[in-house]
Write a structure and sequence with these properties.
The complex is a heterodimer. Chain A is of the alpha+beta class. Chain A has two domains: about 160 residues, Dipeptide-binding Protein, Domain 1 (Dipeptide-binding Protein, domain 1, Alpha-Beta Complex); about 210 residues, Dipeptide-binding Protein, domain 3. Chain A contains 16 helices and 21 strands. Chain B is an all-alpha fold. Chain B is built from twelve helices and no strands. Classes of the chains: A alpha+beta, B mainly alpha. Chain B: It comes from Roseovarius spongiae. Chain B: Keywords: Cell membrane, Membrane, Peptide transport, Protein transport, Transmembrane, Transmembrane helix, Transport. Chain B: This is ABC transporter permease.
């Protein structure tokens, strides 16, 4: 199948794409890529705005030091190599040489220091929190950056991706008012595509970066991101051939089977390994009888999640086994069993303090799929003898009710951000349970033992030690069932089969289309 | 009474309407007996087409729920909402209209301006606003429908009372020393009843439509299986499972049609002179 590797570009493409690219023939250059973007991003300045659509579009412009494969292992991008000191407190990165920004200015270690230490520390709230672990940064020469950490920080190597740590051109931003810098409207990065035009409400147009530092990349000449506000119209835009790539979540679940079955159409649920959206139902542990672990266990065993996956999510996604998604590194395999078992559920319920109370189910107001899901859960509960009713709400009402802890059980889903210290501990830490936010420890789970372990695991330098700590945490939390875990959601990317490599990293379509090529027929 | 039935029977459409309505009522009453299980229960694999499985003649919906059971239980909900909200609307509209018509003058002005206030807001929009403010439960759905549908009753009753209050028998009653309440209740309202009955039958139909529309939009009680909900839940799969929207749609169509036909029959039967004129 393979010709001998002659081109550096091919070699690089193979290294970058890993096992996935091995299937394809020689990439062809040229062509236009048409992609749906939903909703229209408020800005493309990834250092200031990090919502979903911005990350997706601006991932073509901005880059960070590494890229991550489906197992979340880091690979060289702007950094060629790196070393970690024995004590886990010093990280040294060696930058690639000959990299320039889109305006021709060379990319150096000064840009890294400025981006991380000045710009993102101030403008990027999630990154700002991570940077609290960094004591100081040094730039011994133009292509070396050294981070000195206050203490070991396990997830550190996992934060160098464009949405978290985009490299910002120092020469355009230093000493300016970052938020109001006119350069925000013409974003400039080191990425494979350059910003060309943005017609608000219609499309965003990128052109190929001819001077891209990876030889032979990118393959396509231009990208159009089409803004199509209505979900049904987005499905139609694909059906009529206006767009070729539908990123995860851009059409309704119930349209997926129809579009998926079209000719020349491929579907993949890869590319979400880092975010790993995990859905669950909060259980209000302050409400009786939900404070009784037997009631919660009964509820957990009552849930037929296989059915929900097949009937509502088109068979995509995975049944969750606990608080840590299986696509992330610290997922523990053999945690206590929480599978569908109505008989066991009835038995547990009989032993519990449940006395006919009506459990209020707060559904997630994100459309039909979630509404049907709440109805299915209500039936699951009723089958084992738990009375329940669905509380209707809109998005504002849902936010309010969850923030005020005004529910018995409530649907939600949250991102894992690749590491339990970033995406899981926030949901279970006892000191993160103050009412007022719908995203913290909403269930009010208080367990000093897991709190302590979470704190320790975050700053452990040794990978295996961390793994052991998180295993212990998962065993304890799953045994307590403070939340009812549902599915690791699958948001499939749908694309024409002759568009090659649209998804090849743990960030999926967010990660820039540098390796995409279009097969001509 | 015999005359009434004769005149009603003369309108063939009305008889058909009555038969359909009787069937719907029977279905509603028998639903809990024939389908003792909750209509929400997931009994089979989803999207089973009609007439493919014994015991599930109309197939299953997106979650594998029995469509026939849903239709039967939905009949009960539709009739309940239609009847109760109409009764509530009458309970508001009749006294308002009667007082406005009988006392006339400033009372009339005040009450009619109040009524017009409600009439100027499109009723469906008002119902949506009311349900957005309240929790959408069955009680509030009924209240919301009643609130938006009483003004026509008030106006109709006012008109009737206005024309009746100057009749001799009312003057006679006044002269004989009867109080206002007695006169309104005993002498005027019974004579204003025929058009109210006709209007009420049409209001039941209107209320069923309103409830269905609200449920369709997801503003109904999420714990209650109604026809509008069934259509709303099925509209997203209309290209792959059209019968899921079609069947409850037919149920609504037939019920509302039946009520309208009955309303017409009642009109014929209660206003014999009008009927003859139109012949």
């Amino acid at each position: 199948m393979f010709k001998p590797i002659r081109h550096a570009a091919v070699a690089l493409a193979l290294v970058l794409a890993g096992p996935l690219a091995a299937q394809d023939a020689t990439p062809q250059d040229g062509g236009t890529l048409n992609v749906v973007i939903q909703p229209e991003p408020p800005s493309l300045m990834l250092g200031i705005v990090q919502n979903g659509p911005t990350q997706m579009v601006a991932g073509d412009i901005y880059e960070s030091l590494m890229w991550y494969d489906f197992d979340l292992e880091p690979h060289p991008l702007l950094a060629e190599s790196w070393e970690i000191s024995e004590d886990g407190k010093t990280y040294t990165f060696h930058l690639r040489e000959g990299v320039t920004f889109h305006d021709g200015t060379p990319f150096t270690s000064a840009d890294v220091k400025f981006s991380m230490d000045v710009f993102l520390r101030k403008m990027h709230s999630r990154m700002g929190q991570y940077m609290q672990h960094v004591e100081s940064m040094e730039t011994p020469d133009d292509h070396t950056v050294v981070f000195h950490l206050k203490q070991p920080f396990g997830p550190f190597l996992g934060i160098f991706e464009a949405g978290t740590a985009p490299m910002i051109p120092k020469h355009l931003y230093e000493g300016t008012d970052f938020a109001n810098n006119p350069a925000n409207n013409t974003p400039i990065g080191t990425g494979p595509f350059k910003f060309d035009e943005w017609v608000k409400g219609s499309y965003i147009h990128f052109v190929k970066n001819e001077d891209y530092y990876l030889d032979g990349l990118p393959h396509v000449d231009e990208i159009y991101y089409h803004v199509i506000p209505d979900a049904a119209s987005r499905a139609v835009a694909y059906e009529t051939g206006k767009v070729d790539v539908l990123p995860g979540g851009s059409i309704e679940n119930f349209d997926v089977p129809r579009v998926r079955d079209m000719e020349n159409t491929c579907i993949t649920d890869k590319g979400w390994e880092y975010f790993a959206p995990l859905s669950w139902m909060w259980v209000n542990l302050d409400h009786k009888p939900l404070d009784d672990v037997k009631v919660r266990k009964a509820m957990m065993h009552a849930l037929d999640r296989q059915f929900a996956r097949d009937a509502l999510w088109n068979g995509l996604g995975k049944i969750a086994t606990g608080p840590v998604a299986s696509t992330t590194k610290f997922h523990a395999a053999d945690t206590p069993d929480i599978s569908y078992d109505p008989e066991k559920a009835k038995q547990l319920l009989a032993e519990s303090s449940y006395d006919g109370e009506t459990i209020q189910i707060l559904g997630l107001p994100y459309g039909e799929t979630w509404q049907r899901w709440a109805e299915a859960v209500k039936q699951n509960f009723e089958e084992i003898g738990i009375n329940s009713e669905i509380v209707p709400s809109d998005v504002a009402g849902w936010n309010q009710k969850v923030s005020d802890r005004d529910f018995d059980v409530a649907f939600t889903y949250l991102y894992q951000y690749g590491d339990p210290a970033l995406g899981v501990s926030r949901t279970y830490m006892g000191d993160n349970a103050d009412p007022g936010s719908p995203w913290n420890n909403v269930a009010n789970y208080q367990n000093p033992e897991t709190d302590k372990l979470f704190d320790e695991a975050a700053v452990m330098a040794d990978h295996e030690e961390r793994r052991a700590a998180y295993k212990e945490i998962q065993d304890m939390i799953v045994a307590d069932v403070p939340n009812l875990w549902l599915l690791e959601l699958g948001f499939p990317t749908i694309y024409r089969c002759n568009v090659k490599n649209p998804v090849n990293t743990a960030f999926g379509v967010n990660d820039g289309f540098r390796k995409v090529w279009i097969e001509k027929k | 009474m015999k005359d009434f039935w004769k005149r009603f029977r003369y309108n063939r459409g009305a008889v058909i309407g009555l038969v359909i309505l009787a069937l719907v009522i029977l279905t509603a009453i028998l639903a809990p007996v024939v389908f003792p299980q909750s209509p929400w229960k997931m009994v089979q694999r989803p999207f089973l087409p009609p007439f493919t499985q014994d015991g599930l003649p109309l197939g299953t919906d997106a979650l594998g729920r029995d469509v026939l059971s849903g239709l039967a239980h939905g009949a009960y909900v539709s009739l309940l909402v239609g009847l109760v909200s109409t009764i509530v609307a009458l309970a508001i509209g009749v006294p308002v209209g009667a007082m406005a018509g009988y006392f006339a003058g400033r009372t009339d002005d005040a009450l009619m301006r109040f009524t017009e206030f409600f009439q100027t807001i499109p009723s469906f929009a008002l119902a949506i606003v009311l349900l957005a403010i309240f929790q959408p439960s069955l009680t509030f759905v009924i209240i919301a429908i009643a609130i938006v549908s009483w003004p026509p009753v008030a106006r109709l009753v006012r008109g009737e009372v206005l024309s009746l209050r100057t009749r001799e028998f009312v003057e006679a009653a006044t002269l004989s020393g009867l109080g206002n309440t007695q006169i309104i209740l005993r002498h005027i309202l019974p004579n204003a009843l025929p058009p109210i009955i006709v209007l009420a039958s049409l209001m039941v139909a209107q209320a069923i439509l309103l409830e269905s529309s609200l449920s369709f939009l997801g503003l109904g009680d999420p714990n209650i299986m109604s026809w509008g909900y069934m259509i709303g839940a099925a509209r997203t799969v209309i290209r792959t499972a059209w019968w899921l929207s079609f069947l409850p749609g037919m149920a609504i169509l037939l019920t509302v049609l039946a009520l309208n036909l009955i309303g017409e029959g009642l009109n014929d039967a209660l206003n014999p002179r009008l009927t003859r004129k139109s012949e």
